[in-house]
Write a structure and sequence with these properties.
Largest sheet: 7 strands, mixed
Strand content: 5-15%
Shape: elongated
Order of helices and strands: HHHHHEEHEEHEEHEEEHHHHHEEEH
Radius of gyration: 23 Å
Helix content: 25-40%
Number of helices: 14
Number of strands: 12
């Protein structure tokens, strides 16, 4: 029996003229790799790819998952001729004046079909975005790399030698299951070569610069290196996220990642990963001493490898769970793809350059990282809505995972607990959250289909919010997004 949110969602969708017939909803089925089947088919028609399963095991007593975004994706093709009601400023201004949002909140609401800004308040003011900056991170990497790009962690060896090098490919989703599969494949190749003793090194040269975030060691982010397992966490977490493949000579396996969020982190993710790999090889009867860091020999040949899920799925997972480790890795991958140093600064420069290539308003922006953990990051509400409008534009199907990766109000990712069963926005608002505890920064940026069928992009930014508890500011932001549903 579907939970109350499911029935509320259906009623809300009908109210905006976007509900599917009951039979169609049944055919859409439950979450399928992160999207309902109906949405994935719609996304495919736009040339998009992706659909990572972003959630862990589902409580059987919990409400059924929401349709992932049929309303959003349907609206992408909707004509822009129908005028948007003009009452939006009068409706939003009192909500934006909520004292919980601090002294100078910013807002931008854009009709994605026409590009017309429907509401603006300090929309060109550069403010700290917190995790909503991940929308910019996603835009940059999706325009720098192919949609089906995968990040490869490889084992290589020189011809005729007994040395092995574990080469980090900058895959932030590598987990213990895939590392074990890589060890299985490697041991199988070694047996075929009659080798039962090897010397193991590990190569992290893909990334450069200081691996520690400019704000210092943080429980929300491991040191950013090209080789890590389980995002540098010292204890295994529940499964959630994009799967990948591991193989040598055609063999394969899948694994799950870990949820984003605070956790005890190792100071040496690469070394820990290499040592874990050595232990796994020993389990196959291979004698190997503790590994040491080294650059792979120039003449080394592939032995085995494991690849991440496609880029589109990795981006979706980053947005849904607000994954800081993925965000920083993607920033460095953007830098590599565009010929810049794979460091914090190189990644920041690469993101700014990619957005400028799209002719987006980045002049007032300051990028220092890809995750939004740095208070020095600055973007405007106008930039965020323009980014979302680009993701909805028919001319940029490569950006569609930004829309499908946004958390669904009341159902997925960082919006799971933000909207109750009685909210008119549950299942209809899709948005990226942003919070910097202790800094008074609370933000929300995403999309909603209004009552007239227009796909609206919105961004609400607040700083200097009173008190240490972000909940009042978050509720105020949610009321703004909810008001757009009825507009």
């Amino acid at each position: 029996m579907p939970g109350p949110k499911t029935w509320q969602l259906t009623a809300g969708a009908a109210a905006v003229g976007l509900a599917l017939a009951a039979g169609t909803v049944a055919l859409a089925g439950p979450w399928d790799s992160g999207q309902r089947t109906a949405e994935r088919h719609r996304a495919a028609s736009w040339g998009a790819r992706g659909g990572a399963h972003h959630q862990g095991p589902v409580d059987p007593e919990a409400p059924a998952p929401a349709p992932s975004a049929p309303s959003v994706l349907t609206a992408l093709a909707a004509p822009g001729g129908t005028p948007v009601p003009a009452a939006l400023p009068a409706a939003l201004a009192p909500l934006l004046a909520d004292p919980a949002l601090g002294p100078h909140p910013a807002a931008s609401v854009l009709d994605t079909a026409t590009g017309k800004e429907l509401y603006a308040a300090h929309a060109d003011a550069a403010m700290t975005p917190a995790s909503t900056i991940k929308i910019a991170t996603a835009t940059a990497v999706l325009t720098a790399l192919p949609a089906d790009h995968r990040f490869t962690t490889a084992v290589v060896a020189p011809a005729g030698g007994s040395g092995l090098t574990l080469v980090g490919g900058g895959d932030p989703t590598l987990d213990r299951t895939r590392l074990a599969a890589l060890a299985d494949d490697t041991a199988r190749v070694l047996r075929g070569r009659s080798l039962d003793q090897v010397r193991l090194t590990y190569d992290t040269s893909l990334f450069s610069g200081d691996p520690v975030h400019p704000i210092g060691p943080n429980e929300n982010l491991a040191p950013v290196v090209a080789l890590m397992t389980d995002e540098g966490r010292t204890a295994a977490a529940g499964p959630s996220g994009a799967s990948g493949t591991s193989g040598a000579s055609g063999t394969s396996g899948t694994g799950e990642g870990v949820e984003s969020g605070p956790g005890t982190r190792t100071s040496d993710p690469a070394g820990d990963t290499a040592r874990a790999f050595a232990t796994l090889l020993r389990g196959h009867g291979v004698r190997v001493a503790d590994p040491a860091p080294a650059t792979a020999p120039a003449d080394a040949k592939p032995v085995a490898s494991t690849r991440s899920a496609p880029l589109t799925e990795v981006v979706e997972r980053m947005l849904t769970t607000s994954d800081n480790d993925i965000a920083e890795a993607l920033n460095r991958q953007t830098a590599i793809a565009t010929g810049k140093p794979a460091s914090f600064q190189g990644g920041a420069d690469a993101v700014s350059a990619q957005l400028a290539r799209l002719q987006l308003p980045v002049k007032a922006s300051v990028f220092t990282d890809g995750s939004g953990l740095n208070r020095a990051d600055k973007v405007t509400a106008q930039l965020l809505t323009r980014l979302l409008a680009e993701a909805a534009a028919p001319g940029h199907p490569e950006l569609r995972p930004i829309l499908t990766g946004l958390p669904v109000a009341g159902f997925t990712g960082t919006l799971t607990a933000r909207y109750g069963t009685g909210s008119a926005a549950a299942g209809l608002v899709r948005a990226k959250t942003g919070t910097l505890g202790g800094a008074g920064v609370n933000t929300l940026a995403g999309t909603v289909v209004d009552a007239s069928g227009h796909l609206l992009a919105f961004a609400f930014l607040s700083t200097g919010t009173p008190g240490a508890d972000p909940a009042p500011a978050q509720r105020a932001l949610d009321r703004l997004a909810t008001r757009l549903v009825a507009h």
